[in-house]
Amino acid sequence: MCFSASASFIASGGLATLGVATLVVSKKQDKILALIPILFAIQQFLEGIQWLYLNSGTHSTFIGYSFLFFAFIVWPVYVPSFIFILDEKRRKVLKWFVILGSIVSIYFLALLLSEPIFVSKVHACVSYTFHFPFKYPAMILYLLTVFAPLVISSLKIFRWFGLLVGIFGIIAGLFFWLTFTSVWCFFAAAVSSMFFFYIKFKGPRVIVVNK
Asked: Cα 27 from chain centroid?
């Protein structure tokens, strides 16, 4: 989490436990969805380690790059991909967001490999900053890649996830702009817990056979 080392580790442990439980109760086709809390758990664990460095008066560049790897490289590909796999009705449209997400991830990967990052503590939150050209167009494409597949999905669970993450994204942007990446990732991690309840309690798929 973005507010302290202990909070980050607690969030990480809770998400990891929930993620494992989700994997246990999920069917084969839902495994990709069940991994989301686990991936967020790893990301929150990394931020917990970063807090330990910050509290000692320094920071870890490696941990910073690792955290941003999830934020800017994993999620732009993973989000449209798992929706593409699970939402058969909208695959013709969703495939373009998988392609767009791959392009966005490659763009940020190139930046992280070439640009230094700066990690600091700002108002009890962690700030990750680095220079990149075409900042606003790049962020618009990033948000489009993450949000659009959720919004256009035919599955309600994804639309609800997109709505909640979007609301928390607005809150993070309004009140935590300097530490937006850290705060928003925490909010998205917390919301991902809904996938456990979705997988555990959803009914079986009904297959209609035409006679």
From this structure: 22
The Cα–Cα gap between 161 and 163 comes to: 5
Q: How far apart are CA 172 and CA 123, in angstroms?
A: 13
Contacts of 132 (CB under 8 A, 6+ apart): 108, 111, 115, 138
Q: How many domains does the chain have?
A: 1
Its pTM stands at: 0.81
Side chain identity, residue 114: S
Does residue 206 fall inside a structural domain? no
Who's near 115: CB < 8 A, 6+ residues apart?
A: 130, 131, 132
Residue 202 dihedral angles phi and psi, to the nearest 5°: -70, 150
Query: Helix axis angle, 75-86 relative to 31-55, nearest 10°?
Result: 160
* CATH code for the domain of 182: 1.20.1070
Is 209 part of any domain? no
Question: Closest Cα partner for 55 from 106, 120, 100?
Answer: 120
Residue-level pLDDT, tens digit, the chain, 211 residues:
456 778 788 878 888 888 888 888 888 888 888 888 888 889 889 988 999 998 888 999 999 999 999 989 999 999 999 999 989 899 999 999 999 999 999 999 999 898 898 888 887 778 888 887 888 888 889 888 988 998 899 988 888 888 877 777 777 665 555 556 666 666 676 667 777 777 776 654 433 334 4
Q: Phi first, then psi: what are they for 12, rounded to 5°?
A: -65, -45
For residue 48 the two structure tokens come to 């917990």
